[in-house]
Amino acid sequence: MEKKLLMTPGPTPVPESVLLSMARPVIHHRHPEFRGVLKEVRELLKYLFETKQEVIVLASSGTGAMEGAVSNTLCRGDRVLVVEAGKFGERWSDIARAFGLEVEQIEVPWGKAVSAKQVKSMLEKGQHRAVLMQASETSTGVRHPVKEIADYTRASDTLLIVDGITAVGVFPIPFDEWGLDVLVTGSQKALMLPPGLAFACLSEKAWKAKDKSDLPCYYFDFAKERKNLETNQTSYTPAISLIMGLQEALRRIKETGLEKVFAEVALMAKATREAMQAMGLKLYAPDSPSEAVTAVLVPGGIDAGQVVKIMRDKHGIAITGGQDQAKGKIFRVAHMGYISRGDIVAMIAALEQTLTELGHSFPSGHGVQKATELLA
Ligand SMILES: *Cc1c(COP(=O)(O)O)cnc(C)c1O
Predict the structure, then answer these.
(1) Is 163 a pocket residue for ligand 1 (Cβ < 6 Å)?
(2) Ligand 1 centre from 136 Cα, in Å?
(3) Is 65:244 a contact under the CB 8 Å cutoff?
């Protein structure tokens, strides 16, 4: 009887108390009981996003909120600047083009973070309506300098639209304090829930842009959702069970405190990175690693796909490989949400056995020793 451990950068494990909340009978979404749930969830989401703004709740995967971020705030033909530093950066370009926007990209090599200076100099040249970027580029394990870019966009007419899907609840990204314009996230990364919910928060500047926006939106109409949320309702049938789970997950985050959550995730991320290096492995994003996910280059001659397969089949630990140009070259492990220090040690121990089996030679036990030393 194999015990499984989910350490992929989405979905992530769901705590027992959250699973039990979702196992309760389905209630009606227009009745007082559910409205009470939504009322509390609205407040807890403001705590999570560190904002006074309403946080829109959608029944979709994270990409739905990304699409809505574009379709609610921009106009046909608008010029936007996209930070393309991996798979999810490319998604911003795809969405923007699907809505008839003019896309200019900053192409950043995979494994590297964009420089705020470069964004600034492109913006100075270019009449862009918005910058679209990731806070954490999950495909490469990179963290981008959102705050530094916000320092520039805040005082301008340009909207800063941020995919925080592996950032919100992972590391500090205070929406109001930094002056972001749109921040989106999804349920299955740091929020300790199954996939199926997406969230979006808009600044005053973004809500004004919404009034002028002429792009088509119906299901993802954020203004309509905001109006309904003010009466503790959603426009359409919400994902009732998921929202009941969300209430429990957000309560747990609040009880722990965001600062503590961030510190714990950062410690597990550091232990993971250093343990990988102690095993003679190289990090894919050594200069600006995301606390959500660690991307690791496999030694020459080893296929990263094999690492993922052996970890899954022999050790019951789900991790992921690389996508596109990083396929076969890297594997990725996540340390956000409901992951414990013990999970990190177990993952490193299994990885030591896996790499040994694949012929990588390194001083046995060094990875585990490093991880335990840092986590003690
Ligand atoms: C997971 C992820 C997404 C996509 O979310 P879906 O829920 O699969 O639509 C988008 N951006 C980033 C950075 C992610 O990690």
Answers:
(1) yes
(2) 10
(3) no
Start-end of H helices in the chain = 16-22, 32-49, 62-73, 87-98, 116-126, 146-153, 175-178, 204-212, 222-229, 240-256, 258-278, 304-315, 341-357, 366-375
User: How many whole angstroms from 361 Cα to the centroid of ligand 1?
Assistant: 35
Q: Which of 132, 138, 165 should be mutated for ligand 1, with most atoms under 8 A from CB? A: 165
For residue 248, the one-letter residue type is: E
Cβ 10 under 6 angstroms from ligand 1: yes
C-alpha 161 – ligand 1 centre gap (Å): 15
What would the two tokens of residue 189 be?
A: 């990364």
* Cα–Cα dist 104/268, whole Å: 36
CB 129 within 8 A of CB 74: yes
Residue of 77, 83, 117 lying closest to 215 (CA atoms):
77
The confidence score (pLDDT) of residue 116 equals 97
> CA-based angle 296:297:301, to the nearest 5?
140
For residue 2, what pLDDT is reported? 81
* Ligand 1 close to Cβ of residue 88 (< 6 A): yes
Say if pTM beats, i.e. exceeds, 0.70: yes
**Class in CATH terms, 16-256:** alpha beta
Q: What is the pLDDT of residue 29?
A: 97
Task: Parse the chain into domains and list their residue ranges.
Answer: 5-11+257-375, 16-256
Report, at the CATH architecture level, how domain 5-11+257-375 is classified.
Alpha-Beta Complex (3.90)
User: At a CB cut-off of 8 Å and minimum separation 6, what does 273 contact?
Assistant: 283, 289, 294
- Looking at residue 39, its pLDDT comes to 98
Alpha helices in 80-221 (DSSP H): 87-98, 116-126, 146-153, 175-178, 204-212
pLDDT (tens digit per residue) in 274-296: 999 999 999 999 999 999 999 99
Q: Which residues of the chain have pLDDT under 50?
A: none
Atom 12, ligand 1: residue with shortest CA distance: 165
